[in-house]
From TrEMBL:
InterPro entries per UniProt: NTF2-like_dom_sf, YchJ-like, YchJ-like_M
Domain YchJ-like middle NTF2-like positions: 43-137
Family: Belongs to the UPF0225 family.
Lineage: Bacteria, Bacillati, Actinomycetota, Actinomycetes, Micrococcales
Protein name as it appears in the record: UPF0225 protein ACFFPJ_10565
Length: 140
């Protein structure tokens, strides 16, 4: 399973003052919330975190919109996906505001049918026309 292929279909609202699901320690309203509403991600890491949050909240539209059109599947449907429970950023290569590409390695924990699991992925990102896009990931 790739993080780009699985999500949680439990779409729910989250208060702006609530802790952000991405685990940054910031409030949702000052972290991933603005990105999920359309603000551009300033770095590959921020896009990664916002994509995790979208997966955790079941926001398939954001997941699809943040996926590079060249590699995006025809549809993102997370109806039967796992429940995402935590994100740990392991490594970051480039992906800053002035870069054109970056890699974010992460571990995302989940539960699925009562079993716990960890997805370990190195995600590749590109920045084109001032916008970061998720391209693909390699499962580790």
């Amino acid at each position: 399973m790739s993080f780009g292929q699985a999500a949680s279909r439990r779409t729910r609202d989250i208060a702006g003052a609530a802790p952000c699901p991405c685990g940054s320690g910031d409030a949702f309203g000052g972290c991933c919330g603005p990105l999920l509403r359309g603000a551009p991600a300033p770095t590959a890491e921020r896009l990664m975190r916002s994509r995790y949050t979208a997966f955790a909240l079941g926001d398939d539209d954001y997941v699809a919109a943040s996926w590079h059109p060249r590699t995006r599947p025809e549809a993102v449907d997370s109806l039967d996906g796992p429940r995402w429970t935590g994100l740990e950023i392991v490594d970051i290569e480039a992906g800053g505001p002035a870069d054109t590409s970056g890699v974010v390695e992460f571990r995302a924990t989940y539960t699925d049918a009562g079993a716990r699991g960890v997805l370990h992925e190195r995600s590749r990102f590109v920045r084109q026309a001032g916008r970061w896009w998720y391209v693909a990931g390699d499962i580790g």
